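Database export, one record per block. Field names are fixed; values are copied verbatim from the stored entry.
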Amino acid sequence: MLDRAALLHIPDLMFSARVADTLKPLGLTTRDLRPREPLEPQISGAVLLVLQLAGSLEAWSALIAAAKAAGVPVLAFGAHVEAATLRAARQAGADLAVPNSQLAAELPALVSSLLNL
């Protein structure tokens, strides 16, 4: 069976564990992005990037751009009060940019829609 890995960049460890646990029944393994290592080898082979919109716009937009260049769909999420940040993620190329609450409530459906599961 092929390794279907989702690459996670979720600084909030509680959210990260919750996302990883939710992706397992969908047949996805998870790998955490290592920010101090080259990005391209980490993205290679991933089927999805799940990205928390934390930190600088430049940092996470570079992650979105690298994933999109590699043909990897991007599911970004952030605080619902940060509508401009969610909009900026969509403009940067994220396939979906949703509030935290929607990610928590609909993660399996969101991932299934992106990966045609």
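Remark 1: Strands lie at 5-9, 29-32, 46-52, 74-78, 96-99.
Remark 2: The CA atoms of residues 4 and 27 lie 7 Å apart.
End of record.
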